[in-house]
Amino acid sequence: MLGKRLFSTVVLTTLAVLSVFYKLPFIIIITLLTFAGLYEFFSMIEKRGTPVFKYFGTVIGLIIPLSIFFRFELTKGWELLFIVIALISLFVLQIIKEDNSQAVFSISVTIFGILYVSWLFSFMIKLRLLPYGPALLGALILITKVSDVGAYLIGSKFGKHKLIPNISPNKTIEGTVGGVIFGILAALGSASFLPNLREFNYFNLVIIGFALSIIGLLGDLSESLIKRGCLAKDSSGVIPGIGGVMDLIDSLLFTAPVFYFYMYRVLVQ
């Protein structure tokens, strides 16, 4: 298992580096991860017995990142309008179905899947489109994933005290502390390529590393909560040693929006 995990980590690190420096690999990788994440999410929900609009949700979910990357804006509030149109479309699809016994669950879960997977993950694109975008994206990925790796390594070696066993039985307090320490070290290491701004002095980088590590942990726990509700150990088995795409991006779903809003306020506002 460790060998498979290391192999997957090397491959994924290579793809991450390509996505940071080159736009075409970036949008291809983001689109593929969004598609796979949506498909995994809706498949888990279906296996639990709740009918969802899997293909509609997947298609709509793919339009969101692509529209952001190609800067398509029908109106200033394009994303909100898009969500409203998607919601109305779901009601229409539900109305023409013969079985409406789980209409509320079907519509709600489909919208939730689009927002949770596609919209949150699309902040990776928004971050890259900011000034110094590639450097910011690299820092986000580095801090978030190094924190994940640190939590896994320390937790596997020294973990004894369970963190929240009813949601994620393998996570420990020791692993959490290790993840935070690794995240802070990764943030400090990011100083070598981040822009020379006062927001990136060493004190602030420690705060950023700490905050993103904790937020990434919440993202991980949130996906574990969803899997527990769907009676699934992993979102899928597509990535050897790791699980599914959702297991790969769960922490980024939370850290990407938070880091984007912080950097938007610093660089744009």
Polypeptide structure, described:
The chain is an all-alpha fold and 269 residues long. The model has no long low-confidence stretch (mean pLDDT 88). It is globular. It has 10 helices and 2 strands. The longest helix has 28 residues, at 202-229. It has one domain (2-267). Helix 2 (23-47) runs antiparallel to helix 5 and helix 6 (123-129) packs across helix 7 (133-158).
Name the descriptors.
10 helices, single chain, mainly alpha, 269 residues, 74% helix
Number of domains: 1
Specify the structural class.
mainly alpha
Radius of gyration: 19 Å
Elements, N to C (H/E): HHHHHHHEEHHH
How much is the average pLDDT? 88
Name the helicity range: over 70%
Q: For the report, how would you describe the main beta sheet?
A: 2 strands, antiparallel
Number of strands: 2
Overall 3D form:
globular
How much beta, percentage-wise?
Answer: under 5%
- Largest sheet strand order: 1-2
Number of helices: 10
From the N-terminal CA to the C-terminal CA, the straight-line distance is 46 Å
Uncertain runs with pLDDT below 50, 5 residues or more?
Answer: none
Can you lay out the helices and strands and say which pair or pack?
Elements: H1 2-21, H2 23-47, H3 54-69, H4 78-95, H5 103-121, H6 123-129, H7 133-158, E1 162-164, E2 168-172, H8 173-189, H9 202-229, H10 245-267
Summarize the structure.
Helix content is 74%, strand content 3%. The chain contains ten helices and two strands.
